[in-house]
Amino acid sequence: MTEPTANMTVDGDRLWDSLMEMARIGPGVAGGNNRQTVTDEDGEGRALFQRWCEAAGCSMGLDQMGNMFARREGSDPEALPVYVGSHLDTQPTGGKYDGVLGVLGGLEILRTLNDLDIRTRHPIVVTNWTNEEGTRFAPAMLASGVFAGVHAQDWAYDREDHDGKKFGDELARIGWKGEEEVGARKMHAFFELHIEQGPILEAEGKDIGVVTHGQGLSWTQVTVTGKESHTGSTPMPMRKNAGLGMARILDKVDEIAWSHKPDAVGAAGHIEVFPNSRNVIPGKAVFTVDFRSPELAVIEDMEARLRKEAQAICDEMGLEVAFEKVGGFDPVTFDEGCVTAVRAAAERLGYSHRDIISGAGHDACWINRVAPTAMVMCPCVDGLSHNEAEEISKAWAKAGADVLLHAVVETARIEG
Ligand code: HGY
Ligand code: MN
Ligand code: MN
To answer: Which residues touch 163 (CB under 8 Å, ≥6 apart)?
Structure first.
């Protein structure tokens, strides 16, 4: 058995060209992408990925949640495969690299092993997880969550988007609902390459983030109910303004997050008022509060204070308030052995690196429950993500894929 050699590196130009070609599917309006889950554009991106994988000699598996599994055979077909991947779906105003770098970085590993005519003992499987973003159908990481046994499949199928369409129906409509049982696959290990989506690596001049942990996430959907009435003729003391109630609650959300500085964060990205008419006092406001922290106790404190403070605000204003937990996962500690393989790969390749906690959620956070898992991160410009201006350098993409290559191949064991 030989070790991965330091000069085994990916073809950075080929990886970049693939990223740019995928970015042409589901373009945004400002240079990024709008390739939301189980839309026709998602279907197109999947088809392109499948063509590339088959051209690289892989067989493609597809499960009942639309998760895709491109398998490169190993010398021991009985050995559990090493999985590597991320997601191809994007935010409505997403970037070209969030998720996509991890899927196409995995494909680049297979292409590189083909070029070098290297056979690993364990098969390698490149994965595209369905609906990581959770923007069209909450929660985030939906399909990897079903795979890890966190969500029931029928519950996932019934998730509805803003127009009342169901996830399962849309998955079938685009023709990507497979036969394979979700979660039946067993993994030797799972690795995910992802952009940092934060400013630390770039600010410190580091090429690689060795992800030791992922912070936990909590999504609480809040519904505030008041009374629609005329914005002109309703006296101020008589108003039951759900929009104002929401505004006061959102100010509290910010205060609660700051009270746990420096690590906790809190905001609402999803906000709706009804009827959303210029001269009607909002009778209803619906919004999702996103709290995150590396510490579970902090998340639980923020959730409890949100409910208490929001109730007090609404009682004082004569409004009704209801809460629904629509997403969340506890802080994650990744597998020591896999994390060490990532760190050793960065050192062998001479890339600067630092340990880091992931601020964003990833499919790896759920897969960590069913297989030894770790993540590799590369910097992104100004730490910006979930924005069409998301940008990385070709060198960062290559560094991340090189480290992923070595960590995956070392774990999959090169045959002598
Ligand atoms: O919300 C997240 O952290 C991920 O980008 N879906
Ligand atoms: Mn992502
Ligand atoms: Mn994302």
So the answer is: none
- Those residues whose C-beta lies under 8 Å from the C-beta of residue 148, and which sit 6 or more positions away, are 183, 366, 367, 369, 370
Residue 386 CA, ligand 1 centroid: distance in Å: 9
- To test ligand 1's pocket by mutation, which of 37, 132, 365 has the most ligand atoms within 8 angstroms of CB? 132
Question: Residue 359: nearest ligand to its CA?
Answer: 1
Query: Residue 173 belongs to what H/E stretch?
Result: helix 167-173
- For the stretch 154-167, pLDDT in tens is 999 999 999 999 99
DSSP 306-357: HHHHHHHHHHHHT-EEEEEEEEEE--EE--HHHHHHHHHHHHHHT--EEEEE
Residue 414's pLDDT band (boundaries 50, 70, 90)?
confident
Around ligand 1, the residues with Cβ closer than 6 Å are 132-134, 140, 360-361
Global pTM value: 0.94
The position carrying tokens 């003729």 is 233
What gap in Å lies between CA 178 and CA 62, rounded to an integer?
Answer: 5
Determine the residue type at 20.
M
Distances (CA, A) of 253 to 6, 73, 291: 48, 50, 9
Give residue 350's region: left, alpha or beta (phi > 0; psi -120 to 50): left
**Could you tell me if 100 and 86 are in contact, meaning their C-beta atoms sit under 8 angstroms apart?**
yes
pLDDT, one tens digit per residue, over 296-310 is: 999 999 999 999 999
Query: Distance (Å, rounded) from C-alpha 40 to C-alpha 75?
Result: 37
Q: How far is CA 270 from the centre of its chain?
A: 17
Nearest ligand 1 atom, CA 359: 3
Cβ neighbours around 304 below 10 Å, total: 11
CA atoms within 13 A on the CB side of 304: 6
